[in-house]
Amino acid sequence: MMAFALRRLVYLVPTLAGVSVLVFSTMHLSGGDPARIMLGERARPETVAALRVELGLDRPIAEQYVRYAVNLLRGDLGRSIKSHTPVTEEIAARFPATVELALAAMLLAAPAGIAAGAVAARRRGGWVDVATMTGSLCGISLPVFWLGLILILLFAVLLPETLMGLRERFGAGVPVFGFPVSGRLDLNHAPPWRTGLAILDSLLAGDARALLSTLRHLVLPAVTLGTIPLAVIARMTRSELLSELQQDYVRTARAKGASERSVTYRHALRNALIPVLTTIGLQFGYLLGGAVLTETIFAWPGIGRWLVGAVMARDFPAVQGGTLLVAVLFVLANLLVDLLYAAVDPRLRLASE
Predict the structure, then answer these.
(1) CATH code at 328?
(2) Which of 95, 129, 196, 336 has its CB 3.0 to 4.6 Å from that of 120, i.e. a possible disulfide?
(3) pLDDT in tens, 168-213
(4) pTM for this one?
């Protein structure tokens, strides 16, 4: 297993090198002068030229990339043009919010998707199967920004109004509540920050009000972001489970008198989850890097929303650093999936040796 892991780590080196070249080339071919952006349109030409020399922008592209790569190896992603702070500090301040949102979305999507896919496979051809597959198709097809706006309308606007009307009609016993549509928590309920993860920091501080505020703010973004992974996992689980139910060992278990429930969930589902595990890992990588629309809609202070602002401001170092982070996260997610896959299925590990 150790040799398998080391081999996969070695394969990461050319992949990450290629990612760095691609990110660097894309930003430099997109046009615009970072020195002019930093100093403004009214800056004198000689001042812009001096800043270009200071930043090394007057040198050949190949030399600029070597300098960029050396700084990457030192952990230096440059300084933001917009805020004049190191990009690493900007990422460190926002990355926990994205991780928390992605984890919440996947904790919602994985169990629900596996359960839905397993039930649909067991009831193949029935109304449960048709409803599940139709729902998963809708989940994959619906645009994230549209779904987020619909959830805001339903649970942040219409739900409180409806409950308020019921309270006026039936008395104070009817609770009135809704879900927040922006931010991570209420400002007056913020816990002492230790890890940057609001839920974990609330638990460490023993602050129930902060924990409740965090969970309320997390519901709508997590549901919006987790809809597509849930649908993908459900379809994959159903497909793999139907394939496993046709295998010889399943017929043997049935012949021995095992119940259909036991055959499905104790025998076939365990083997069907091996490729589903790969899907979950890849979807988590997508969530870490693809939460741009969700974070923008719900004003979630994460990497995605920060990258949108950096692109709009043509903040080259921030865009490069954020894009590189997203690429690295996706590559690491693939590595983790490979390792977990090899741990669950020894045949894969033996085939690569």
Answers:
(1) 1.10.3720.10
(2) 129
(3) 777 777 677 788 888 888 877 788 888 888 898 889 888 888 899 8
(4) 0.84
